[in-house]
Write a sequence for this structure.
């Protein structure tokens, strides 16, 4: 992770870019909304959670307006809310619809789409924070390995601690999602 001073520099740079994009293209421009999404990540890493969440909600609203509610970037920003919001707000955000986001992503994008996989991950995290005893609504089938390859960082992070990545032709590791 970057030192705090560098993250603060990134914040200043992203705010300058956003200001220019807003002036030139408006608040519904996809590039402006991408900069907003990036800035909210920086703010979260600086510990400014409420400011980050406010900006993320604005990004969701802007992407809905500019790209439509079913666009992958809109869905990705909504999935980020699952991870960013305090547990007390997850169940009430969007009138409770946020908790059905993984099924919505599966339906709209397919279960192997990276946004659908990310939404399912964030949904599981939200359920954990809510203290939900039920299991996540989806069981994974190794999609990261199939889509990205066994050596991709996102695939390796899905393997249980203590197991090695399966590597070419090996099946010795147990993916987290296949163990239940």
């Amino acid at each position: 992770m970057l030192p705090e001073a560098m993250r603060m520099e990134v914040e200043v740079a992203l705010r300058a870019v956003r200001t220019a994009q807003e002036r030139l293209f408006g608040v519904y421009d996809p590039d402006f909304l991408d900069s907003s999404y990036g800035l909210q990540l920086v703010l979260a890493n600086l510990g400014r959670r409420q400011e980050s969440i406010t900006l993320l909600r604005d990004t969701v609203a802007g992407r809905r307006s500019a790209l439509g509610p079913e666009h992958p970037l809109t869905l990705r920003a909504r999935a980020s809310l699952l991870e960013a919001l305090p547990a007390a707000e997850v169940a009430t955000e969007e009138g409770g619809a946020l908790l059905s986001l993984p099924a919505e992503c599966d339906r709209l994008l397919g279960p192997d789409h990276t946004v659908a996989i990310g939404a399912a991950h964030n949904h599981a995290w939200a359920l954990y924070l809510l203290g939900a005893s039920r299991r996540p609504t989806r069981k994974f089938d190794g999609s990261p390995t199939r889509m990205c390859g066994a050596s991709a960082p996102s695939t390796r992070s899905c393997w249980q601690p203590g197991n090695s990545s399966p590597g070419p032709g090996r099946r010795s590791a147990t993916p987290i999602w296949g163990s239940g």
